[in-house]
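User: Can you fold this complex?
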Amino acid sequence: MATMDDIARELGITKGTVSKALSGAEDVSETTRKAVVEKAVELGYSRISRTQERPRLALFILNMSYDKPDDFGYDMVVGFRKMAEPAGYEVVIVPLTTQMQLETQYDEFMLRENFRGAFFLGMTLTDPWMKLFETCRTPTVLYDNHVPGNPNVAYVAADNTEGMCLAVAHLKSLGHKRIGYLSSALGSYVYRQRYAAFFQALRENGMDDRQTLAGSALQTPVCLQSHLPRLIKEGCTAIMCSHDLLASSLMLHCWELGLHVPQDISVVGYDDIPMASYTSPKLTTVRQNRTELGKSGFYALKSLMDGVPISTFLLHPQLIERDSTAPAPDKPAKLPELEDAAGSAAAAKP
Amino acid sequence: MATMDDIARELGITKGTVSKALSGAEDVSETTRKAVVEKAVELGYSRISRTQERPRLALFILNMSYDKPDDFGYDMVVGFRKMAEPAGYEVVIVPLTTQMQLETQYDEFMLRENFRGAFFLGMTLTDPWMKLFETCRTPTVLYDNHVPGNPNVAYVAADNTEGMCLAVAHLKSLGHKRIGYLSSALGSYVYRQRYAAFFQALRENGMDDRQTLAGSALQTPVCLQSHLPRLIKEGCTAIMCSHDLLASSLMLHCWELGLHVPQDISVVGYDDIPMASYTSPKLTTVRQNRTELGKSGFYALKSLMDGVPISTFLLHPQLIERDSTAPAPDKPAKLPELEDAAGSAAAAKP
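Assistant: Here's the predicted assembly.
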């Protein structure tokens, strides 16, 4: 375990300067502070080595609920802790904010807080720390975010490409010829990847893959209202959704519009969150094994801490067939509004 | 642990029929035999449960040497055994032939030979068993071959996409503007993936990505003779190779042609096999950590055997900068033959 003396010797500065830099004193230049922090992380310096505490791991969470068993993040946190705590680590859950990311540099935060490594749930591509992961020195595992090229960073997920293939092949086997796609905003790695994977699956199955078959929006109501009528008009008999909550809202929206799921239109979700078994009808979806993802997160992090440069660790997803998918109807559904609109358009013709 | 009775009960047949089917007796129909084998594998039946032997794992190897420390496969085998044997497994190396694959069905072979799972090194896309991996029941890990969609099969490798990015970025930083690519035949998953990754890396670096910048052939001399003159003529100042042996032959061939590596042309290999440090000049290459790949192979296999559906397990590769790369020359090199050819072409003009 490296000491302040080691850092001072390596950088050719005094131990006092190292101490000041590490404690954030103001009479140390930004350049020196940065050099000290980088060297400290590189050498594996940790205050912990001089205490009896267990080594600490940070589990950063944002954009994801995890308190209750029904929350998406719950099983992942449980899986991670189940592996980490018997191995002698203390797991500290750190709700992450943009403000925190802007106020402190990642490696420095980890060093100051005595964290040996971190597992991140829920980062988006615009999060300030995402850029720092390209060069960070701290062992770091990202769920559903891929930052290639840094030997200290690993990517853990259920294979989204395979999941989309399973869903599209299932709908194809039910006779659906045109499938639409609805997605949350494409500001996160996972939604971008699923979007691309959906179209790849269409191509691999020899199906219509026009880009107009997809629509996305940050707000669910906006997504449904702007894109669903269009997809129905395009003749889609099935809609694939980027995640279960959107699929669940879609089914409610179909019900309001007088469309029957799955008779008129099939709906497939993604994730298999606990509520997917309690929608009406019960949702066909792609399952990610969240407990195993949490365990895999720890395995990848432990490997990075041990010097094994894990890059990517993916699990097979699983298609869960429930009641929201059925054989394609003989004819695509029609929305009353659309018929009205078509009617008035026809009436307006000269 | 399932017994023959369990298999018989599940299939509604007699234990005698199960026994005959498992021992390959001729008076059992092919359909019954297949059903028995599939059920046996599904239930985890193994003769071993009734003996004192250690559970057996198969390490299949083809198209790859592994006997001596200098062989590509050596460290992978060592890494795999280092993890598997202390965990109580017997590792049996099985040199695999096309004949063996044609003569016996994979799951059946594994059951007959009492293997619990397998790690495969060196399969090509045309190997007969590759098709069986799409539906096999036996826990199976493939090095550098990706068969998606089967929860019993995992893919282990060093990230080839990242490796190509490292190599191309290195050459770009040395001022090379046009890079050629030479590859072994594209009959294996890994060479196809590296080929695609090379062009992806060119695009990501904003470089010329014409398909004519690549050439491949099964035989190294054919590859060099058919493609090198063309790449030089295209103005390439650097050549990326699909693997180190090809890069090493390329450097010898350049020397024969009077081209100096790296002054006239830079050369980058892939794999960092032991001989890469002993070429003249020493080869710049992309390293795969073969010992860790072997260990990862066991980890993935153990996970599959424990019911964790690992899909993909990739390690970060590493660029090893040695002496075969240098800043790009002011002008692309010219081959004497090409100048002659150009000369005679000019002379032949009317």
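The radius of gyration of chain B is 25 Å. The mean pLDDT of chain B is 91.
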